[in-house]
TrEMBL record, chain A:
This is Cell envelope-related function transcriptional attenuator common domain-containing protein. PANTHER family: POLYISOPRENYL-TEICHOIC ACID--PEPTIDOGLYCAN TEICHOIC ACID TRANSFERASE TAGU. Belongs to the LytR/CpsA/Psr (LCP) family. Residues 87-223 form the Cell envelope-related transcriptional attenuator domain. The chain crosses the membrane at residues 35-59. Keywords: Membrane, Transmembrane, Transmembrane helix.
Automatic annotation (TrEMBL), chain B:
NCBIfam families: sigma70-ECF. This is RNA polymerase sigma-70 factor, sigma-E family. The lineage of its organism: Bacteria, Bacillati, Actinomycetota, Actinomycetes, Pseudonocardiales. Belongs to the sigma-70 factor family. ECF subfamily. GO terms for molecular function: DNA binding; sigma factor activity. Residues 101-153 form the RNA polymerase sigma factor 70 region 4 type domain. Keywords: DNA-binding, Sigma factor, Transcription, Transcription regulation.
Length: 305, 168
C-alpha cells in the first residue's frame, strides 16, 4: 500500500502550478505592484467601493508587506464622466486609516462662480479640485475620473447589483423601465439606472441617490472570485492625477470596507448663465463635510426614487 | 545561500509539497508566494541556517495548518469527500490509474496534520525527527499521526476491495 500512497501523493504534487507564475508574482511584489492593480480606487461614485474592496481582496495582504506605512486618511475626488466631457457624478470620499470610507456626493448642477460645477473638469482638472476645496473646506489629495459607461459591464461581472426602488419608473431617454421594489441590475439596465434623471421627482438629486445606492450594492457583491475581472474592467476606464501612487494607496486598505454615502446640502435653484443651477451654500457645505468626515456619517435607508 | 538561488533551486519542489498537503494548487500557490515574501524579508537569518529548506517548509506547513486557511481547507475536503464516495464504485480494479486516484481522494480527506505528516514521509522522504521539526511537535506525535493515517487508508483499502469483490 505504501507504493500506492507514494504514487497518489506524487500525482497530487504533479498538479502544482508552474513555478514561473509564482516567480512573476514575487517579482511584482518586489516592485510593490501586485497585479497591475487597479487604479481601482478610482471610479465614480462607485470607485470608492471598488477600490477599497477590490484591491485588498485581490492582493491578499496577510502580513506579507510589513513595510506598509501607517495609513493616514486621504481625500479623493471621484469624478464620473459620461459620453461628454461634462461630469455626471462627483463624489468627495475620505478614505480613513481603518478602511472605512465616508463619501459625499456633490450635485452636478451646483453653481460655482459663473458656471456649473460639472463643466470644470473638462476645462482643467485643477479648476474642479480647486472649486471643490473652496466649497467644502477640505483639501483634495487626489482625484480619479472614470467613464461611467463601464458600469454596465462592471455590474455584469459581479452578477448584477441589487438596488431598491420606492416606485416604478419609466423614462425613454435613458431607457429606464423599472418596477418598484428590490431588483438586480446589470448591463444596459444598470446604465439606465445610473443615468435616469428625467421622470424623477428631484431629477439629478435623485440620480445622485441612485449612484450611492449602486455603489453600496456593488460593494456588497465584490469578492475574491470576481475581484480580478473587476479590477481589469475598472482599470480600463479610469484616469487618475499624475503623481498618485494608486497601488500604494490601495494596498493600505485591508478590506472589507464600510462605505457611508451622503449628499452635500444645497441652496435653492437659480437661473444662471448656464441654465438652471443649484445655489451653493458654502457655510452649510463646509459644516456638513466636516461633520460627515468627522465621524458623524450615518448610513441611509436602502430604497431610492 | 542567497534568496534568489534558494528560489531557483527549491521553488518547484516547494510548490509540489504545498500542493500535496493542501490538495489545492491555487491555495498552494498563495501560501508559497506569501511565505516566500515573508522569508525574503528575513533571509539574512534563514539563509544562514543549516537547513533553510526545512525552515521554509515549516513556514509553509504552519501557514496551511493555521487558522487562516481553515475554511478553505474544509471546503476542499468536502469536495474530495464527495469524490471519494463515488470513486470506489465506478473504478475498474484493473486500472492502476483509477486505484491511484481513489487513494488520492482518500488522502485528501484525512485530517490536515495527518496528511502533512504523510506527505513529509512519502513525498519528502523525511525522517521522524525532521517531520517533528516541520510540524513543531514531538516525535511520538509524528508516529501516532502517521499510524492513524495509515490505519484509515488501510481500512478504506480493505472496504474498497471487499466492495469491488462483491460487484465483480
Amino acid at each position: 500500500m505504501n507504493d500506492l500512497i507514494r504514487q497518489a501523493i506524487a500525482a497530487e504534487a504533479e498538479e502544482r502550478v508552474d513555478s514561473r507564475t509564482v516567480l512573476a508574482g514575487l517579482h511584482k511584489a518586489e516592485k510593490r505592484k501586485p497585479f497591475g492593480l487597479i487604479v481601482g480606487v478610482a471610479t465614480l461614485t462607485a470607485a470608492a467601493a471598488v477600490a477599497a474592496v477590490v484591491v485588498p481582496a485581490t492582493i491578499k495582504k496577510t502580513d506579507a508587506s510589513p513595510a506598509a506605512p501607517p495609513a493616514a486618511s486621504q481625500n479623493v475626488l471621484l469624478i464620473g464622466t459620461d459620453d461628454s466631457e461634462f461630469t455626471d457624478a462627483l463624489v468627495l470620499a475620505r478614505f480613513d486609516a481603518d478602511g472605512s470610507v465616508s463619501a459625499v456626493s456633490l450635485p452636478r448642477d451646483l453653481q460655482v462662480g459663473e458656471e456649473k460645477i460639472n463643466r470644470l473638469y473638462g476645462q482643467a482638472p485643477e479648476k474642479l479640485t480647486g472649486a471643490v476645496e473652496q466649497l467644502t473646506g477640505v483639501e483634495v489629495d487626489h482625484y480619479a475620473a472614470v467613464d461611467m459607461g463601464g458600469f454596465g459591464r462592471i455590474a455584469q461581472i459581479v452578477g448584477g447589483v441589487e438596488v431598491c426602488l420606492l416606485a416604478a419608473t419609466e423614462d425613454e431617454r435613458s431607457g429606464a423601465s423599472f418596477p418598484a421594489g428590490r431588483q438586480t441590475v446589470e448591463g444596459d439596465r444598470a446604465l439606465a439606472f445610473l443615468r435616469q434623471r428625467m421622470g424623477l421627482p428631484h431629477g439629478d438629486l435623485d440620480r445622485v441617490k441612485r449612484h450611492q445606492a449602486f455603489l453600496t450594492g456593488l460593494a456588497a457583491k465584490i469578492n475574491k472570485d470576481n475581484a480580478v475581472a473587476l479590477a481589469a474592467e475598472v482599470g480600463r476606464s479610469v484616469r487618475v492625477d499624475e503623481g498618485w501612487d494608486v497601488l500604494a494607496f490601495a494596498q493600505r486598505f485591508q478590506g472589507p470596507v464600510e462605505i457611508v454615502t451622503g449628499t452635500l446640502p444645497v441652496g435653492a435653484p437659480v437661473d444662471g448663465p448656464a441654465g438652471q443651477a443649484l445655489q451653493a451654500d458654502p457655510g452649510a457645505s463646509r459644516q456638513f463635510v466636516a461633520d460627515w468626515f468627522g465621524g458623524k456619517a450615518t448610513p441611509q435607508d436602502g430604497c431610492v426614487r | 545561500m542567497g534568496f534568489d538561488q534558494f528560489v531557483a533551486e527549491r521553488l518547484d519542489r516547494l510548490l509540489g509539497y504545498a500542493t500535496a498537503i493542501t490538495c489545492d494548487k491555487h491555495l498552494a500557490q498563495d501560501i508559497v508566494q506569501n511565505v516566500l515574501m515573508r522569508a525574503q524579508g528575513k533571509w539574512e537569518r534563514i539563509g544562514a541556517m543549516d537547513a533553510p529548506y526545512l525552515y521554509v517548509k515549516r513556514m509553509v506547513t504552519n501557514d496551511y495548518l493555521s487558522w487562516r486557511h481553515r475554511k478553505a481547507a474544509r471546503e476542499i475536503a468536502v469536495e474530495r469527500a464527495e469524490l471519494a464516495r463515488h470513486v470506489p464504485s465506478t473504478a475498474d480494479p484493473a486500472d492502476a490509474h483509477a486505484e491511484r486516484e481513489a487513494m488520492r481522494a482518500r488522502i485528501a480527506v484525512l485530517p490536515r496534520k495527518q496528511r502533512a505528516a504523510l506527505v513529509l514521509r512519502f513525498y519528502e522522504d523525511c525522517t521522524d525527527v525532521e517531520i517533528a521539526q516541520v510540524l513543531g511537535c514531538a516525535e511520538s506525535t509524528v508516529r501516532s499521526q502517521l499510524s492513524r493515517a495509515l490505519q484509515t487508508l488501510r481500512a478504506h483499502e480493505l472496504a474498497r476491495s471487499a466492495t469491488l469483490g462483491v460487484h465483480s
